[in-house]
Amino acid sequence: MPSAVAGGPGQFSTVRVVIADDQALVRSGFRLILETAGIDVAGEAADGREAVAAVLEHRPDVVLMDIRMPVMDGLEATRQILGAGTGVRVVMLTTFDLDQYVYQALAAGASGFLLKSVSPEHLVAAVQLVRSGDALLAPSITRRLVSRFAAPDATRHRVDLSALTPRELEVLTLVGRGLSNAELASALTLSEATVKTHLARILTKLGLRDRVQAVVLAYETGLVKPGLAPDDP
Question: Are residues 35 and 62 in the same domain?
Answer without folding.
Answer: yes
